[in-house]
Amino acid sequence: MHFNTKTAALLLIDLQVGFCSPDGHTGRRLDVSGFEPVLKSAKRLAHVARAAGMPVIYTTMAFAPDYSNGGLTTTELRPNLKEENALRADQPDRDIMPELEPQPEDTILEKQRYSAMIKSPLPALLEELNIEGVVVGGVTTSMCVESTVRDLAMMDYRAFVVPEMCGDLKPDFHDRAMQMFALAFGRVVPEVDMISAMNAGSEDFPHQAR
What we know:
Rossmann fold, alpha/beta, two-stranded antiparallel sheet
C-alpha cells in the first residue's frame, strides 16, 4: 500500500475533553489516564505531518444542545449521552485536548456519528484536498476509530493506522481492532515507521496480516 505525503492527511479522531480528560464525560466515570500516551503520540505525529506539508484534521464528537442531530445514537444506542448532558457542542466536552495545541492551519470538524465519514464534512474535505491516504489515530480504537477506518477503506482511501496513536478503555478491544485493520482495512504502521515515511515523503507498506 503506497503512502505519499503529497496525497495524505493526518486524521486525529475525538481526542477531546469529553473522552480524554478526567474532567470530561468519560473521565468522570472511568480511568482515562491510559490515553495520555495516545495524546503524546498524536502531538508528535501532528508536528511531523505539518513539517511534511500534510493537512492535520481533528474530529470532535459534538451534539447540538438539544441533541436534535443525534439520531439513533442519542435516542436508542447511547441515550445516556443525552440524559447526562454529554458531548454537547456548547460545552467543554467538545474541545480538543489543549496539550495537542492545534495550529491555525489545522482543521477541526464536528461529527455526530461514530464514523467520521458519516454525516460530517470529512468526505468533502478529503475530496477537496485530493487526499488518497489517511494516517489515523484517536479514541476509542474499537468504536470511532474502527468505524472510521472501515468506512475509509470501503470508500477507497488508503488507511494507515498508528497503534501508539490509538487508545481504548480495554486493551483487548484495542488489540482486536488492530488485528482487523491489518487483515482487511489498511496497514497498521508503528509510530517510528510512520514518522520515517513522513520524513522520507513516501513509502510502500506490505500486507502483513496472518
